[in-house]
Protein 1
Amino acid sequence: MQRYVATRLAQGVVVIFLVSVGTFGMMHLIPGDPVSLMLGEGRVTQEQIDLIRRKWGLDRPIHEQYLTWMGNMLRGEFGQSVVRSGVPVRTMIAEAARVTITLNLIAFVLSIAVAIPAGIFAAVRRYSTFDYLIMVAATVGVALPNFWVGLMLIVLFSVVLRWLPPYGLGSWHGYVLPVLVIVIGQLALLARLMRSSTLDNLGEDFARTARAKGLREGAVVVRHVVRNALLPIVTVIGYRLAFILSGTIVVETVFALPGLGQLFVESVNRVDYQVVQAIVLLLSVLVVLGNLATDMVYGLIDPRIRIR
Amino acid sequence: MSREAAAPIPRLPAAYQARPSEWSRGWRRFARYRPGLVGLAFILVLLVLAIFPDTFAPHPYTQIFRGMRGAPPTWGHPLGFDHIGRDVLSRIIWGSRVALIVGLLATGIAVVIGVAVGAIAGYVGGWVDSVLSRLVDTLMAYPLLVLLITLAAVLGPSLVTVVVIIGLTTWAQYARVVRADVLSLREREFVLAAAAAGASAARIIFRHVVPNVMGPVIVLASLGIGGIILLESALSFLGLGAQPPTASWGGMLADGRAFILTYPQIAIAPGVMISLTVLAFNLVGDGLRDALDPRQKDVTINR
């Protein structure tokens, strides 16, 4: 186990390093000189430009620039927004993250709470109408663009029924539709996964043994099958973190929620690269850590994984 | 013995007769899955529309009908008008072109890169494998949409940009699958035989190994096209895809969002088309998986 943890940790560190180099490099793909971007159309002398270059460290070789930047990132100093001048990027991200985390946490808990019982039920009642419904919903569900689902919910609940606000976060009502969109996206997929995982385990030897001991089918499912069937769900949730983060960007844009996704898209449009850089790095490091944590948890609860 | 009376060639026993080719057997297995056939039919229709949009679209996609802003459907315009008075049906038909170009070309780029990287990593092994595998891990670590939005903005949004950046960022999954398969193929007799006969590594990889991993790759690719069309529509929705006045379904939905309170019906048709197209590709992918690669099940490759 220790060897396994050490290898995965080392790989994780290498990937985080490469992600940081990739992000840094991507920002240097921007055509044009960052100084002239910063100054815009204003008249400046060559000396002033040189002064700014020196102040921002742009006169130094690229690897030094990278090391300085990475050092700042590691200390949590993301710099200041170029557009909203004077506001530390860290503050902007912290404010936005609160909205994003709230939104995704509610959606996540709701989808899990519904999907897992639904998946178990579909597996136990295989080939029933309910089972069929889950499979169809899962197939159609992955094909729906989440932003379009959002738009249709706005049409239904805000334009036709006038029950809920179309966008913004004036009150908690603003969370209802975005949460619904994310739940719709996750629900069918998770239920289908739980179904196939439960089905796999229903046919296992340990389930047959439990039945042979005279346990009722209900007890077999609840005590033996479900515990094992949850394993793949844990990993899929962990590995889907990147997908969930991608989803939240579009959903926040549809509903104009002041979360990380909207901050990111706005910063991209306003060419506020300090903010963009910080968010890209933050999210990808988060994904790496999420995958690492998933591997660890999986190794802990399933001893078979460690022996490799 | 006289030469004239040659004995007729005896018929071979049934077991030795030519069996239907791998392809026709594959097709038969595919055809057993009805939803896959329906999906294929839908894609073929879409393909015809995308190749000849000017024949099928009733109006030019940029023609503005004065005084018809956001007007509801009429007989001549069965899907109504958009926010500046253009015919929605014509724009839907032209939009199929963008969706298919991005879906097919970007997938093609990703498959070529992914198969090459995966085959080299798996066959060569050693430090080459370590370097390529970390590269794959790194690419997989970025939330895909975040990466695409940044790249599109940095490189300047256009149809070409979208195809290239999606192709360049989605190959990692193919590399992973191919690498794993090549690792096991590497020790098989026919590969060892080729090596013993003196074939170069490049020849072994591309003549002997790669053809044997194409089954799972085709399945993954067909299942991936739908996801890529979704990505393209999301980018266009955010204004980072093909630029106006080009008709793209995602871009039409962006207009739909801007005018959702005044002309809510604009946002319906493009979304239906995206969903149906993605669904069709996914169903074909499911059918191909059953036909070509029965080992895999429930693989979803969205990020």
Protein 2
Amino acid sequence: MIRNFCRATLALTLGLALSQISHADPDLPPWSEKAIQEDVDIEALAASGQDPIAVLQPLGERLFSAKFTTLDGAGRPDATGAIVPTKVRRQSHLTFQRLAGLDANACASCHNEPVAGGSGAFTANVFVSEGFTSADFDTIDPQFSNERNTNAIQGAGLIELLAREMTSELRKQRKNVLAKARANGRPEQIALETKGVSFGSLTAYPDGTLEVSELDGIDDDLTLRPFSQKGVFPSLRQFTVNAMNAHHGIQSTERFGSKWTGTDDFDADGHTTEMTPGQISALVAWQATLPAPTRKENLPDIWQQAAQKGEELFGEIDCSSCHIPALPLESLVFYDPGPFDTAGTLRQSDVETPLALDLSTLDWVKSLPRDDQGRVLVPLFGDLKRHKIADAANDTFGNELLAQRFVARDVFITSELWGIGSTAPYGHRGDLTTLNEVILAHGGDATESRKAYSKLAEPDRQSIIAFLRSLEIAK
Amino acid sequence: MNKLSFTISGAFLAVGMAANSAQADETARSGSLAPVPAFVEEALSAGIDHTYDGAWEFFVGGGTAIFDCNGDRRPDLFVAGGINQAQLFQNVSPTGGALKFTAVDTGLGAKQSGKVLGAYPLDFNNDDILDLVVLRLGENLLLEGQGACKFEVSNRSLGFDGGREWTTAFSAIFEPDLDYPTLAFGNYVDRSKPGAPWGTCHDNFLFRPKAGENNHVTYPDATRLSPGYCTLSILFTDWNRSGEPALRVSNDRHYYRGGEEQLWAVPPGRPPRPYRKADGWQHLKIWGMGIASIDLDVDGFPEYALTSMGDTKLQKLDGESDETVPVYQDIAFDLGVTAHRPYSGEDLKPSTGWHSEFQDVNNDGLWDLFIAKGNVEAMPDFADIDPDNLLLGQWNGKFAEVGDKAGIGTDRRGRGAGLADFNADGLLDLVVVNRAAPVSLFRNLGSGTSEQSKPLGNWLAVDIRQPGKANSRAVGAKISVKTGNRTVVKDIQVGAGHASGQMGFVHFGLGVAERANVRIKWPDGDWSHGYRVFANGHVIIERGVEKARLWYPE
């Protein structure tokens, strides 16, 4: 409360009164069971010149940990968890159900290891389905849903910024090859690459058409979607809107409001305007500013030495070709809404001015290394690219039956390994208890590295484990 | 909750209430919960200074053909002129910017460009370059596209007699086992008959292709569709999901005697025959001016909007009747699309409707209905000021009028029209050919302004081709677009509207869907596999090709 007062005082001294930006419901008694009690006018906030992080982050934190109740509109008796507003075929008599949902009433009830925003145990797995034709599944039969472990969100702001820059760069390359084909009057091909990661090739024709069948690891629209185990969500904002509906039955107006559904109570639970753009922005801001995972400090010498050796071997056996130690980031300004969201998620065109969250003001960002061009080196141990990760010889990761958002069942985005020392169990289903098991589960594009790991002597394999276990989410 | 929170909460509530109140007022005024797009008129600044005009014979007609005449995939415009010369305008609009056209020479002589009432594009010679069928007062013309917006009259080479009639309607279909299209022409009053114009409607004509030596096709014989009842719009349509399109004919009761709306069966290789009362066809007399067809409920049986003087009809196959007989119920009143009198101004006399077209102008995934309106000339019993309608589809299945709010309501007398994305920004723009007044060209700004347009819902533009086959543009095909559990379908058709046709990218609004599954039912009835495509782009689907190609405008 004291912290809130300080922030408000700061805002007042900066100009626009906080009361014009951040609001709380005055009619609620202090014992109210309503979890959503505050809102933020993001247009006013963007116009105020105030630091949006200071205003949004605390509200986002409260919302992330809040246990939503029916008083907030939790529950979606007449809607599925689908990303596109979809009515149920038959209503469930259960408000909560761990399969088709509702499967939680707080974000932090799953994202909580080792801290809020972190990963989840196997007990916190979710069953994800597009939710269109079989929305009311009540079985774990994999023909209806994919079982997934909870991802950690730490560092997600930097991940989204990397993805935005990579999307921009790839689209620029697409534009260039189209212009070249038009200018030369003949087909032209380009190998797509950004931040050292290749994404296949495009062939452009003089009439402005584009052949996309040779793309690799990215969607045809060249939007890099870095989030989820699958890599199918472009932004924290879109994911938040999706998740609020799927997991909690809290429907945001930017997708489920009357503009796109003809009703302000799409899920027919008697609650309108369950979550505003301002509240979504608060959740986004909190997630985007979560400190990135770090390395364990004060390790005993034996672990320190093993980790150092393991990191070298990690590179030598080519794990680092996909789990790239660091990607360079040009800009640390996180705009919300972002540049690549589409209708149904608030877009930059939907607001006068997007919020500009300057992540460079955060202490944990200041401590990140920079390259000789001044770019922040984001130590994600990932490439933000999707790969085929199972094959007939090793199908541990091919354990799903359903494609998701056009991505085949055995294709997943490279897991960022930062923080992996804090996020056991492992694998997209969270069913591998040790790092050794998860490494040996790699097939498909990672087969050679897995084989190389297998051939290492036990002490060398242990050193790789030591290295990976040194990557942690700080408590 | 601390003191500060209480202090600021009053403002929260006040702001919230004000916002709710403003939203309620807005909804009450527009009647639309669906977002209303803003249109701005840009004809003159776009370089289109053209008027359709003339005496009695040009009280009707006034059509436009929207198609790509130079192979750049952008829609160009051919506009009828009546007593004035028809003109061709090449689209040079910058992507996402203000509309811009350049008048280009068609290669036609002055006589051939005169007395034009309307036009429809199609590829009648299977070279994948769009051709043009030009409807005239006098000889109709089959213009073979040469590329680069040049045309050659091919009446002679095709053995086609363009006739001398007053032609006001056209439709075409590729019949099974025929490599070239069957052409249907709708004619209006036979002015040469005694007693004209009353009760002297001309017969309509059907031309079937005839293969000669070396596969040289000709159209030597016209089959008369008699009686004709002063037709103003025709459409080959698969009304009963049989795979065999019939010809729907909308007729103007003003001149016929004993006439009615018509439906002709056109069985392959056999003479056409009209559906009669014994076939279930019900007598309906309207001032039929323009047909618009869409399958609103995706049951495979299209609905038909029929413009008229007074109320617009919206016909749906009667669910209580045997679906093999053409018994229709009028659902226009239930859905709010009667559009029977002007929605603004003081003039409460009945409206006069002409071109009609279902499209999705706000990209919310719901079909909207545009109707061009305008007094015939000076009919005193009908509204003099009669603005065009823009009826936005709503999630409750009904439609809401937003013509004034969208900025398309004018005091001009609309006739032909078309909606197409001229600047390739994903928002359908609108061209309206007015009688005795300049062509109107509206740019769709979405939720933005003329300085900066802004998107509404997500969208998808689909072009389908059959390379190396007859019927390159797949006339008769059906495009099915699925988002979530929702499917919308649109047919590739040549015909309908009022003397106005278009061919090119077919536009779909996707609402909040980020991707879609597209399937094609090709003209021979074969379904394609599903094409997985992302929103907000142009895709080209060629028959037999595994993956859709994308198109990016410059």
